[in-house]
Design a protein that fits this description.
With 505 residues, the protein is mainly α. The chain contains 26 helices and no strands. Helix 6 runs antiparallel to helix 7. It starts with a helix and ends with a helix. The chain is elongated and about 90 Å long. 83% of the residues lie in helices and 0% in strands.
Length: 505
Amino acid sequence: MKSVYLKLLRTEMSRLEKRGGFAMSEKLLRSLESSFTKPDYRIVLLLEKARLAYLVGRWDICLSILDKLESQEALFEPDDRAYFYILNGLMHQGYGDLNQALTFLEIALEEALSGSGRRAAEAALEMASLFNRIGEQERGLDFLAQVEEQLRKTPDRKLSAQLALERGLVRLREEDLAGAEECFRECLEGLEDKSPSILRGEGLRYLGIVACMDSRPQEALLPQRESLKCFLVLPYALGTAKAYSSLGQTCLQLGRYPEARFFLEKAVEVCRKLGAEAEMAKFLGKLGLVYSKLGEYQKAIEYQKQDLDISSRFGNYRALAFSLRNLGLSHKDQGDLEQAVKYLRDSRDRFAELEDEALQVKADLDLAAALLAHDRVMEAFGYLEDATALLEKRIEVTPDHVHAKYYSGLVALKSGNLHRAEASLWQALEMCQSFSMQVRQAEVHFQLAKLYMAKDDKGAAKEELLLTYRLARAYSRTSLLSEVVEMLHEIEPDALFQALLHSRY
């Protein structure tokens, strides 16, 4: 009788959440408090209240409930005990204590094995998610295999959708963008309807992230806005913060810096209220990059150092590597080469220790870019060779191949090898067009203009500058625009008028 009653309760809560978000479920639980007098029934009620408190961002209440329940653990049934430990794991993960989160999730999985298969699958999915987050994909895949085995025995639509999402995250980490997108769409298609839910919000958010990684930031905005709406309707606090951050990252990529700042500041604000410092650190790092692009370098460095301090305190090695990278990029924008190289090298070393070749490539390219900006060509060439060697292992061409080819062109151009520079830059241009990398395309056109000026072909240089002007103007690349204007004036005094005419079409 009890199991039937509680199943009906959870079914009704799920129905209400689809209709009106978590608020309606909360009202239902409050109305049942007086009737749930038996200790074992009351445990279930409190667990559901803890779950809702966690989701809506009342982590203080969630912790308080979990503390009360700890003394009643002997009354728990296996599934409820597993759920208790899953919630503890989620709370510690939210606060950034990943080791403690892992301990709780391991206990949850052990307890779940003596209960229903569904709860065991939930615990295994959370374990997979945690291992994927810290970069241990192989261990994460082992747990996903356990979930698959369980779903073959007892199919579950929601868990299947969640499994698809986690598999998408693995492919995303491997930079298999097509495979990741397929998984995220499978997740969304596996849901019963389009009503707001955490899975729907996450699926939409990650579709946007894939689009950004595939150099389609404009396409990312729609699913990411839908994701934010979804989390705001529920409301799901941590999801809301992540959705704000994703929109901020997309706007950063599009060069819409004031919007990027707005969204990332909102993400930081939500996390600060939650006490989710580890998550907030990532958003602070991104916010620092935005301020760097806005030319507010001191503020950028301040945010980056906050990110580094928090990441160091929590001992998240992967997050720390990203913090160092962001700090290096901000110093690069500021023109402080020595500090930029120092932090970028440290970041690269940490990615190498993590055996993450995809991020090693990015770090090598970051270093090459920083050194080329200060005409340290031979040092840049060394890092570029390292990046190229890792890229040659990949079967498919990625945006990193574009960046590598572009920097190869710059190395050749700065070394005076105009023939090789022209070949590399034209290859980079073709790849830019295939990936719709408009900003990088503008930069390639500009370097081709410099090349043709070196060959004393002012007609070809002018054409490349006109193309650069159109793209730089469209994407608000102010510094590049000023350089283009200067070169156009040098070639032909009235060429700027032509540029303005050209930019209209």
